[in-house]
Automatic annotation (TrEMBL):
Name of the protein: Beta-lactamase-related domain-containing protein
Organism in which the protein naturally occurs: Ceriporiopsis subvermispora (strain B) (White-rot fungus)
Gene3D superfamilies in alphabetical order: DD-peptidase/beta-lactamase superfamily
């Protein structure tokens, strides 16, 4: 009774749906973040290939970005009555692919996979350039007692040579050279990804349940001691380390 195999939509309509899936808070969205987060939880891992999962409504596969990291693609596929449809999202870098086909060739999923592989290189490069413009460089306080260097390697932000009020800080966290910076999901706010100290010289990962809101290093001035954030635009950009009341400006 459904000769079109459920393909009663256009690419424009599919793009609207993908935007809603990627950003449930957008005006007119029929979804909430809660319902979207629930739907994206995997319910079964195919451990034999370490590559595929099944979700509540999704098929989940992985694709490597241009830095070699495996990132998840969530997609829905339809192959009915000569019509072949895929709608897929790549939450890690917030874009999606919609592909509507008809005819003898039926592997729309493979084409979508190739599209992600082609686009990802350009997106990774754009993200790295944006991060470099916002965060990278040498930062220093007005009294010269505090400084930091932020670099980008393989698409990730790192901080090194962190000195606060005259004290070299990274060795106190058990990191001799540099540590990664991870986002808190608040704009321009990051944390030193330090986990908890090594035990008997071995890494100790501790609890990961609340990775985005909790660390084991405690608070000072009412904020985590591994938190930093940025304010301002372009030449007025500032780096704030609130637990020690330090403000730095970009010097190079």
């Amino acid at each position: 009774m459904n000769s079109a195999g459920g393909q009663f939509l256009s690419i424009a309509n599919a793009a609207t749906v993908l935007q809603m899936l990627l950003y449930p808070d957008r005006p007119g969205s029929l979804l909430t973040h809660f319902s979207m987060d629930r739907s994206m939880q995997p319910v079964h891992d195919f451990e034999e290939d370490n590559w595929t999962q099944v979700g509540h409504i999704w098929k989940i596969v992985k694709a490597r970005d241009s830095h070699g990291r495996a990132r998840k693609i969530y997609w829905k596929l339809s192959n009915v009555g000569g019509y072949h449809t895929v709608m897929a999202i790549y939450p890690g870098t917030s874009y999606g692919v919609a592909l509507l086909m008809a005819g003898r060739y039926s592997d729309a999923a493979e084409l979508a996979y190739e599209i992600f592989g082609s686009f990802q290189r350009a997106i990774d490069a754009a993200l790295a350039e944006k991060a470099r413009a916002l965060y990278a460089g040498r930062w220093e306080s007005e009294d010269k007692e505090s400084s930091a260097e932020i670099t980008i390697e393989n698409g990730m932000l790192f901080i090194e040579n962190l000195r606060l009020n005259g004290t070299k800080v990274l060795p106190l966290f058990g990191a001799a050279v540099k540590v990664a910076l991870r986002p808190t999901e608040r704009r321009d706010e990051l944390r030193l990804d330090i986990g908890i100290p090594a035990v008997n010289g071995k890494p100790h990962y501790g609890c990961m349940t609340y990775w985005n809101v909790q660390d084991d290093w405690g608070l000072r001035n009412g904020v985590p001691i591994n938190l930093l954030y940025f304010t301002g635009e372009k030449d007025s950009r500032q780096l704030h380390y609130p637990s020690v009341d330090v403000v730095m400006r970009l010097t190079a």
